[in-house]
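Following up on my earlier message about magnesium ion. Here are the inputs again, as you asked, copied directly from the submission form:
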Amino acid sequence: MPKIQQLSPSVVNKIAAGEVIERPASVVKELLENAVDAGAARIDVAMDKGGSEMIRVADNGCGIPADELPLAVSSHATSKIESADDLFSVATLGFRGEALASIAEVSRLVIRSRRGDADSGAELEVVGGAAQPVVPVGCPVGTTIEVRNLFFNTPVRHKFLRSAQTEMGHSIEAVTRLALAHPQIHFTLAHNGRLVHDLPPAGDIRARIAAFFGQELADDLIEIHSQGDGVTLSGYVANPMHSRATGRMQYLFLNGRAIRDRALQHALGEAYRGLMLTGRQPICFLRLDMPAELVDVNVHPTKQEVRFQDSGRLYSQLLGTLRSKFLTTDLRARGASPISTSALEENEAEAAAAGTSELVAWAKQQLGKQLAEQQANPLAAPPTQSSFVVEPSGSHEPLRLHRIDVPPPRRFDIGQASLPDVQSGTSEEKLAAFHRRPVGSRLEDSLASRASASPRNALQVHNRYLVVENDAGIEVIDQHALHERILYEQIRETVLAGGLESQKLLVPEPVDLTASEAAAVLEHAELLAQLGVEVQPFGGETVLVSSYPAMLANLSPAEVLRELVENLLSGGRQPEPRDLLDDMLHMIACKAAVKFGDRLTAEEIDALLAQRHLAQDQHHCPHGRPTALVFTREDLDRQFKRI
Ligand code: ADP
Ligand code: MG
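Thanks, got it. Here's what our run produced:
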């Protein structure tokens, strides 16, 4: 073993830099936080080549005295705290005093700064940690920090930098967070000399949400406000018809700092439970403001996670506020699209059709009571399920055949066993959608000759499951899972055989995405093209879709692209083309398949069952859930005490 040695300050700083400065976006975040802490009213960010060539952040804040410039770039030097006690009431975004030192260690950094009371400014340059002498310069009041050639002396980090577009996407995300947390500050962002965002100061973040995420989302926000013991909760949540596959769009700000908090994310999920299809995540822009003493921010190197003194109370406040808000809000604001139709809407529509809309009213009243109880006793465990949620009944129970013969109970079990050819108004629409599905219609064609004559041996129950008699006993099939599996196999075969039928759009459709989404989409344009989705840059965060798979004809290009981008962005690592392709095939199959809840005609049921053999693994859907459960005759005989 070599001898133990004290590491040189330069090595120590490089190790520290590795923790804080991961990519250009980390630099942007740290410089923006310093500008906010300096009380700036305006912050201008400029970047070249995704920030790997140049990042400049200019503010009109308090400035740094010339003689303190060398201290600003040395490690563990800060003006924000003085003693360890201060750590427990941090009111600034920074406090560790290591960001500038870390950045300076791995780049060429120039600070130019002038205090309001100084006649002129001063400049300091640091190259790879080596500080040059401070020189006087003329400059406006405030601070400008320019970072060039990031990671020029740490080749390993440099190698990990992704395309300029991807890095820019991350940086825009950093700007988005700070800009949403501080709407009173004027922010601008330029990339390669082009102005990307100009966000004038505003009392409210709606305009910024529109700028970053599109007007459509900004128009469907629900305002939230509540006041607890010293804690103010405010901001917006999105109508449940807007959702994402991940929690990426859940913005949570604590005292002006963007944070992630599992408990609060859980509360959010609870509040939306039943309003959204399973697996979807709500969108929110919420801020919590509370005295600094009630929270410990010194638990995470990039300060993204914090520790609350009373996490349980915040949980209840968030959940309670959202639930009462949802009760008094008409959540069916606008015509919902097929994928975003929320479970509640669907069930409300069904309930209304069945003349049971008073049930929904009753459910809401029940929820009101529950809420009142919970507010009276906020520390009690939160209810695991809100009572107005209409859950598919019996999904965990093996079989409920009695439903077929007796009138269904009218409580929340709105779904009911029905003969497959019974149709209602709404199911006709769904049927039409089914027929639009290319594969669905092919199924039908192939069966046209025999379907109508064949004796019905399958029954659809609850618009979800098909019960089929076979030699061994009975099988209960998840209609969506089976169809999804069949489609998945078919599409995969088609793709492997050389391509997916792609449909050219008469007029290419512009789709607004967030910066990181647009970057990810363009970076993977080739891969998307293999899937029949052709995209081109259209300037800013807009991407032009010129063709997409014919199989997804009943979804809009925007929906297709937003779905795909979730796959591209989640996971955090460079996606393997093969995995991605497979992910997308799953998605396409899932979207094109009949839904859990779609009523099917006898012909459709027969068609679906006739294709079972096409599914190589017909017992599992592509997500790995079972597609069918088998109850043998012996099982049944034993259950009924016949043997
Ligand atoms: P921290 O923000 O944790 O204090 P930094 O390394 O980010 O540590 O900054 C060190 C110090 O430099 C800050 O405490 C602050 O006094 C000063 N400083 C940095 N950026 C600015 C700025 N934009 N305006 C005024 N002062 C700044
Ligand atoms: Mg700082």
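One observation from looking it over: The two ends are 73 Å apart (CA to CA). Hope that helps, and feel free to reply on this thread.
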